[in-house]
C-alpha cells in the first residue's frame, strides 16, 4: 500500500541522525523509484526553496 511507502519516505526525511544534505539526496533517489513516490518526496524537497537568480526561477517553474 502507498501509505507504507509514504511512511518510509517520512522516516527518511525526519531521520535527524543524518545530515540534511544526505536526506535530500536520498529523497531525490526515491523519486526515481516509482511515480507514486514522487508527490511525497516533492513535499519534503520543496517545502523550503531558495531561488537565487532568474535561471533557478525558470527551472523551478518548469518543475511545478
Tell me the helix content: 55-70%
- Radius of gyration, CA atoms, in whole angstroms: 13 Å
Amino- and carboxy-terminal Cα gap = 26 Å
Q: List low-pLDDT spans.
A: none
How large is the share of residues in beta strands? under 5%
The largest sheet is:
none
Count of runs of 4 or more consecutive helical residues:
4
Shape: globular
Number of structurally distinct domains:
1
Mean pLDDT: 91
Give me the secondary-structure category: mainly alpha
Number of strands: 0
Order of helices and strands: HHHH
Write up this protein:
Helix 1 (2-14) runs antiparallel to helix 2 (20-31) and helix 2 (20-31) runs antiparallel to helix 3 (38-45). The mean pLDDT is 91. The protein is mainly alpha-helical and 64 residues long. Helices cover 67% and strands 0% of the residues. It has one domain (2-63). The termini are far apart. The chain is globular.
Give structural attributes.
globular; 67% helix; single chain; mainly alpha; 64 residues
Task: Itemize the secondary structure elements and their pairings.
Blueprint lengths: L1 H13 L5 H12 L6 H8 L8 H10 L1
Helix pairs in contact: 1-2, 2-3
Short characterization:
This protein is mainly alpha-helical and 64 residues long. The protein has helices spanning 2-14, 20-31, 38-45, 54-63. The chain is globular, with a radius of gyration of 13 Å.
